[in-house]
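Entry 12.
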Amino acid sequence: LGYIRVEQFWYIRVEQFGYIRVEQFGYIRVQQFRYIRDEQFWYIRVEQFRYIRVEQFWYIRVEQFWYIRVEQFWYIRDEQFGYIRVEQFRYIRDEQFGYILVEQFWYIRVEQFLYLRVEQFLYIRVQQFWYIRDEQFGYIRVEQFGYIRDEQFWYILV
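Predicted 3D structure (tokens):
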């Protein structure tokens, strides 16, 4: 690994990707890690549940998912939907589907579908349509309609 100091900043050379800026953290462990740059953030591509801190951000890549930690919050990056806030999570992997467990809520990305549970509601977006999952009735399509929740049923307000 090659290190260079320019003014007050340290840079580390990572394979063919050039130099990555490291501020107050001194060093980054590289070895099997590969780095890419996305918009204004530095990302690390991680294959099997590995973490790295760059500046004030935590990054993890699990399968095709990107996660970023900003302050005390975790976000998952989706190419279409941007960053979605999640909290304390652990991972469960299924052969067909990639799962993430967030607190008591489930997040799953399958092909082009994004499943998201926010507060007490479970949402899914398929193409331009939003669906809500009801424990008894499966997924209910929601367009321009407003819903409320009663004792038995889950609704979404759109």
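Annotation: Residues 1-74, 76-130, 132-158 have pLDDT under 50 and may be disordered. Residues 3-156 form one domain.
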